[in-house]
Amino acid sequence: MKRSFILIAVGLLAAALCWGSPQGEEPVPQDLDPTGVEITYWHQFTRFQQETLEALVEEFNNTNQWNIKVTAEFGGRYDDLYNKMVTAIAAGSVPDLVAAYQNEAAAYQASGALADINDYVDDPQWGLGDERSDYFEGFLQQDVNAQFDGARLGFPPNRSLELLFYNVDWIEQMGFSGPPSSWDEFYQMCQKATNPAENQYGYAINTGASNVFAQVISRGGEVAKADGSGYTYDTRQMKDSMAFMKRLYDAKFSRKIAERYGEQNDFANWKVLFTMSSTAGLPYYEGSVAKGEQGPFEWSVAAVPYTTSRPALDIYGASVSIPKSTPQRQLAAWLLVKYLTQPGPQAKWVEATNYFPVRKSTAAQLGDYLSKNPNYKIAYDLLLGSDAKAEPPFAGYSEVRDAVAAAFNKILDGADIDATLRELDAEANEIHQEAAP
Amino acid sequence: MVKERSPWLKALLLLLLILGAFVSIIPFLFMVSHSLKTIAETITRSSAIPFDPKFWPQVPQWSNYRVAWQEARFGLYFRNSVIITAVTVGGVVITSCLSAYAFAKLRFAGRDLIFAILLSTLMIPQTVLLIPNFLIIAKLGWIDRLPALTVPFLASAFHIFLLRQFFSQIPNELIEVAKIDGATHLRSLISIVVPLSKAPIFTVVFLSFIYTWNALQWPLVVTQTPRWRPITVGLSVFITEAGPETHLRMAGAVIAVLPVIALYFVAQRQFTEAITRSGLKE
């Protein structure tokens, strides 16, 4: 509701947006010169990630041939940054580069605030050129939004994957040779791991929309229509996913987690065999396992069980968007983005953040990072051998995510699956219509 | 003649009150205990029951406070919060006293209508005001400056209403006697009304202090550099994307909440008295 209020306000104030000229709707002007331009970049990173980013930005400032100067500013966490950006759009005082999830970028674009980065990606002078093939295409496609006629509203500086985290020692103790590759195997392992006397169980349920998406695509399904016209939550794959989770939950082989990051603690303390989480959490899992109640143990990551021919992985992460301003400032922002996605800076970013790089050639620059971080390497190899899928980039998807989580919880608590998913589908599409440009 | 309660009933009530107080204080104790744990202990030694040894750290890690202070630039943010809060609270008290006196003691055309309009602004959600307020601040050139963090909050309809109710109870005869002696309305306010209204004024101070001290969204919107960011921004840096740093977050939270607790203990009597006399809930 709060976001709808803000979106309505932004829409009403869109008429006041005579501030910025609609430069992004035209190709990049020829012979554009970004020399001496000073731009600002609003990001969401803190502590060591912020330090690393600022070091990379400083490197760009000192080495770029156009003498472009970038000021990177912490704009708050995602929700705060979103509010800040919406307010800035209405006031006409936007930054030149801003971190934004795809659905947030879509919300900004509802008032025409962003440049279409396709103009820069494909530009003969400033574009990616031959380097494009070095980017993971699945990552690049994530920011192309069918709601806005295929406009590219953001560009990925990094990505994460939704993977299955499992206790290797425990699986071997139970007599299995490796992680489950099918949902039936997953069920069997959860069943065998569950021991109420020791307060142990198989899977820590994550009712978030990303987890739901990961399960649906693992069964060959989708949650949205490719043409951007709406959502599809009332599908066979969605029903199968919910029915499976309900069966697991009713049998008490899985539990809901109330405490934030509680599943990490349970995993570290040998209470739960499986969790599903982001690869961004790898260092935290490592730290937790090292300090668990029963001491360190061997653990690893694997693809979420799947019924498709290849694993389907949910890739996600905030991109960076270029708000409309002047041609020079927009170009300067794009040049910063290109720099940050060069293999050298990408390698430094990976080592500091554990995110995945957006370029394949970054692996060669990681040195012994992959060998020192075996679980990261496993995840990276999975990325290379899987189908990368992304959640819908539609405006209003934040509200839909809340509705998905609520529906998942209702089903676990006993609601009829078919009826709940029909309601969810209707609600999601209603939100989609309200938020549509 | 008042019937005395049976001792058993008294004991039962006392027990219920003790249980209630105990349950209320557990989250605070949790925050303090986790602020003194190592990160390993926050994972392996975690309990919701203060009587469980796992609830408490084995060896208090006082260094967590130093790390939180340094990592989150708490020194700068703490200073900013003190300045922002002092200016805002001072402004709220002054504007609320002046306005409440006018609504309570003065007669002028449209007084009741204006008061009704003032009260109606209480119905407007803060989120709706975010963009209009920001537009004004931006036009005035106050982005990333102290006035952006203080001026929009120097007046409060709620606190005006609160004080107006108390001021209304003060007999008008006192004002009239002062007027006969040559006192102006301002003099009457300062010398008569305010001294008689210490309890509600302390309430205004306390409530506006909490509101200003805990603000996060507005400071993040109107600031672009750490120059004037408050302590709440410092706390947010310990919220990471994929993992907890609970010990540091709790240490930061303790640092942030200490001034509020200190103020409460200083103004506790007046605060309780004000609530009791007004019949308002906290």
CATH architecture of the largest domain in chain B, by name, is Orthogonal Bundle
Q: How many separate structural domains of chain A?
A: 2
The dominant shape of chain A is globular
What's the CATH first level of the largest domain in chain B?
Mainly Alpha
Question: How many strands of chain A?
Answer: 13
Number of individual domains of chain B: 2
State the CATH class of the largest domain in chain A.
Answer: Alpha Beta
Oligomer: heterodimer
- Straight-line N-to-C gap of chain A: 18 Å
Topology (elements, then pairings):
The complex is a heterodimer of chains A (437) and B (282).
Chain A lengths: L1 H12 L24 E6 L3 H17 L5 E6 L3 H14 L5 E4 L1 H8 L8 H4 L15 H5 L2 E2 L5 E2 L7 E8 H6 L9 H11 L7 E5 L3 H10 L17 H15 L3 E3 L5 H7 L3 E7 L3 H9 L8 E4 L9 E5 L2 E3 L5 H14 L2 H11 L15 H4 L1 H11 L2 E4 L6 H16 L4 H19 L2
Parallel strand pairs in A: 1-2, 1-3, 7-8, 7-9, 11-13
Antiparallel strand pairs in A: 3-12, 4-5, 6-9, 6-10, 6-11
Helix pairs in contact in A: 1-3, 2-14, 9-10, 11-12, 17-18
Chain B lengths: L6 H29 L3 H6 L18 H9 L2 H32 L5 H10 L5 H14 L6 H5 L6 H13 L2 H9 L4 H12 L1 H16 L3 H6 L8 H6 L9 H33 L4
Helix pairs in contact in B: 1-14, 3-14, 4-8, 4-11, 8-11, 9-10, 11-14
Description:
The complex is a heterodimer of chains A (437) and B (282). Chain A is an alpha/beta fold and 437 residues long. Helix content of chain A is 44%, strand content 14%. Chain A has helices at 2-13, 47-63, 78-91, 102-109, 118-121, 137-141, 168-173, 183-193, 209-218, 236-250, 262-268, 282-290, 327-340, 343-353, 369-372, 374-384, 397-412, 417-435; strands at 38-43, 69-74, 97-100, 144-145, 151-152, 160-167, 201-205, 254-256, 272-278, 299-302, 312-316, 319-321, 387-390. In chain A, strand 1, helix 2 and strand 2 (69-74) form a beta-alpha-beta unit. In chain A, helix 11 crosses helix 12 (282-290). Residues 4-25 of chain A have low confidence and may be disordered. Chain B folds into 2 domains: 7-61, no CATH class; 70-278, MetI-like (MetI-like fold). Chain B has 14 helices and no strands. Chain B has helices at 7-35, 39-44, 63-71, 74-105, 111-120, 126-139, 146-150, 157-169, 172-180, 185-196, 198-213, 217-222, 231-236, 246-278. The longest helix of chain B is centred in the C-terminal third of the chain and has 33 residues, at 246-278. Chain A binds chain B through residues 2, 5-6, 9-10, 13, 40, 46-47, 50, 73-77, 80, 83-84, 86-88, 90-93, 160, 260-261, 264-265, 268-269, 277-278, 280-281, 283-285, 287-288, 290-293, and chain B through 39-40, 43-44, 46, 71, 125, 127-128, 130-131, 134-135, 138, 143, 216-217, 220-221, 224-226, 233, 236-244.
